Amino acid sequence: MSKTTLELPPDPILERREEIQKRAAQTLGRRTLVSKAFLVMLVLMFLVALLPLGSVIFALLQKGISSISWPFLHTLPSQPSLIDQNAIGGIGNAIEGTLIIAGLAALIAVPMALLIGLYLSESSSRVGDFLRAIVEIMTGLPSILLGVFAYEYVVVPMKGYSGLAGVVALAVLMVPVIAKASELAFRGVPTTLREAGLALGARNSRVSRGVIIPAALPGVITGVLLSLARAMGETAPLLLVIGTSISWAWNPLHGMSALSLLTYDYSGSQYPSQRAAAWGVALTLVVLVMILSLSSRLISARMRKERR
Amino acid sequence: MKKNLRGKFGVAIATFGLLSTIAVSAAGASATLNGDLTFAASDGAAGLNPAMGGSSFDEPFFNSAIPVFMTLAAKASGNNAPSSMSLYSPTGSSSGKKGAIGGTYAVGASDVPMGTVVNSTNLDASLLTGTNAATTLNSYVQVPVVLGGIGMMYNLPSLKKKFGKYPVVLTSSLLASVYNGAITKWNNPAICKRNPKIVNVTKNKKGKIIRKSCALPNIPIVPVYRADGSGTTFIFMDYLNQTQGANFKNLSTKAEVYPSTSFNQGQVPSNALGGQKNSGVAADVEQTVGAIGYVEYSYILLQHTLPAALIVNAKGQNVALSQSSVAADAAAFAASPPTESKTGVVSNFSVVNGKNSGDYPIAGYSWAIVRQDWNGLTVGGVSGLNAEKLVAKFLDWSVQGGANGGQTVARQQGYVPLPSYVTALAQQQVATMTYNGQPLGLS
Amino acid sequence: MKTSDTDTQVSRSDVAERIRLSATSDRPYQLLLRGTALFFGAVIVLFVWSILHTAWPALRAFGFHMVTGKTWAAGNGPYGALPLIIDTLLTTLIALVIAVPVGLASALALLFLIPQKVRSTASSLIELLAAVPSVVYGLWGVWYLIPWFTTTLQPFLAGITGGAWPFSGAPVGFGILLAGVVLSVMILPTIVAISRDVISVVPSELIEGGLSLGATRSQVFTRVVLPSARTGIFGAIALGAGRALGETIAVAMVIGSNPQIPHSLFSSGATLASTIATQFGEATGSTTNALAALALMLMIITASVNAGARVLTRRAARGAQ
Q1: Does the pLDDT of residue C180 top 90, yes or no?
Q2: How many residue pairs bridge chain A and chain C with CB atoms within 8 Å of each other?
Q3: A7: which of A20, A150, B408, C302 lies 20 to 30 Å off by Cα?
């Protein structure tokens, strides 16, 4: 076929494309291999990330489960002596202390944090932005600083270590966390709902109470439970302010015991019985904390489902 | 190794003694007590709850003694006896002093009495100031309550199998060199020289010894100290300072290291570890091969995996820490007992490095500090004559020997009962407590 | 944790307008909200004041030497926090070096690689790491990690450099490296959660565009996804760093509490936070003031890091629009 063919001038763009396609095709095998290796590495690194959790849980179960018994959970500790080195008693008062301190802290923090969350969700002023910034920065501050604060303002004036000082420290710790979570939850309530309420002539307070808070409740509860779990596990501020107790301490004006602090104290005790019990105390604490954080996950999962 | 045996035997005797007094709380108040455990209804003791706290060294004592005291008092006085006393807060020696001065504690305990001056530095200068504090020492009464020894716990697993029966022997100069970093390895010739039993023996075919070499491992010594301020540290440093003087010096500044409640940076080598409280030190030693640390006696006695070093005393004997060897040490100071001057300064309280045979040299008293006159004050959450009486009675009982005295509880917790001349001093001190200038009138 | 709320922006200002209008008719409610906000603001001021006020005597007496001094001695001073600051930064750096790659890999794996069925379980597991109290990590560090450190990890590392820097010194477990490793575990969930959130808002057009151009998945991850989520990832890292800088009890249990400028990664050390925890109870007089000054430094450092993180995550949320 000796037809005259149209001689196209070489197109640099086309050539470049061909070049690239050729290169891409040539390297495809290698690139796919590299990519596969990379992806496998990512998954492996993810599994590595799970290792510590496995190790911690294994350690807690292996060393802690033998200490746990019903008497261990509801009786008072007994001081071991040289005669009775294995005396250990229970951790009832530490569980009680943890629940009371964290519970009272929540009692103070939750209403305050909800109101602040409402304020932040409704405010678009400079003051609101500033407060929001402060709240968010507070959520990341080391808890030990609040121990110093509670020491100065509760322990020193009251002349004594007390559960109350722990309550104050944990409450200030919880407020920003709950406020931030509830602000997000309040923001997540569809604006139409709020407007409907307002259009019906309800006041803002009525709308908040009747519409916004109920609609945002799952999110708020999640925030409360998570911050409660975090507060229960806190050791550093309590170390500075709550003192100690080995009896039932219903009066928060006196020294109290707490699971986190007891774990710390027992971990290096001269008595092997206490040393072993440290793992039992830690396990109890972790179970309590896990119950809270798992239920918060359940609530938020249900919430997400309902939204759909 | 006679001394070694004797040390072990001492522990055995002590332990036996404990077992024989197991029934202390069941024994009831008997006539053997000098102290008065009876309370009348007018004493209003039942509802009083004076807060006590301080030295962590004293925690096992107070937390066992308080319930026993209430039980014994209840046997004597039924419902009139104190029944609401809560337990002791082991917040530390300085905090014990601070609490007694500031009114947090009705009884504050410290391993170093207030007003102690070392190298012309007043250890409490910053304490005896403040708004509501009585800033003169004679406003306080200082009572020795327990006597205890401090052991050197070490972690050398390689010696365990072959040389388990020969604890490492250390001298004050070796300890000083370890803690200031002059000696860095366990097989330092100076340590080997003190431990002739810990040797690897090479024999030839005929069974003749051809070579002996030090079996201490060639690994770094890791000194462990208290990271928090501590009376235990004071006693340990006091021992090193009194025995070594200027030889116990900061290696970089060459300055003599005087006793204080904390080792400071530069006074310990860079590989040293700090632990919080006795428990932190024990945990550090236990988890670190090559570590050595100072801990109170009960840690040594109850430690089933790690040994304690024998310490060479002033007589040149290798002595193990035991209740009897500490008691012997304290007895060596009978001629110059602790005294409290009119200005409130306690002198001669140090009992380190006793000069007699069998003395274990690292030991010390711990002190309870109370306000002398409670008129118009609230201390440890209580106030008034009745509260002061209760505290005075408790302290008076605490220092008593005898089957039902507080010192029996102390012995059960691993302390050494106070020598009788110290009990006498302690009781004299309690007797100086007044209310509105009037003696309390205890029997 | 959703960082984006901007889709409600427009209508929110609308609502704000209404609120302003109805404010006159709803005074008590407004007062209650403002009053609470004001009260909490006052608590924060009091909190900052408590630390500043307690630290002041030490700052006045020792001045800038408190930051630059190389010797920290409880009791009578000197109170030089330089070793503590260095140890704080170094442990945090180690934690980041470990946790950032592992955390980013986990975030990518969670979003793109793990089968849908186990995805939510897998991410809950990571979040459970955050729920474990720090004292438990301390316990785990002392009684579980140390034996592994002294017999396996540290001899291995020392073998790499032949016992030279940075792996010189005796393998005693307690120290900077152990603290860094424990911290890395503790900040991992923060880094995973935040970076997962910012990566999930990378527009899928970008990812699909990359794939359609013939890039492999790994190329898309490293050249498209991570760069476009960069700002948010830096935010996640900063949040993790903030947590590591202030972590107290776990560090106090494993670092060896020896305030010194480390000569190797095996050195014992002490951080700002761990020193406050171990020495505060026994502190008197000037030591209390000096510890409060440490608290002040810690507050300044963590607050600035958190503020930085906040700026970054906000910018990332805006950029995702």
Answers
A1: yes
A2: 266
A3: A20
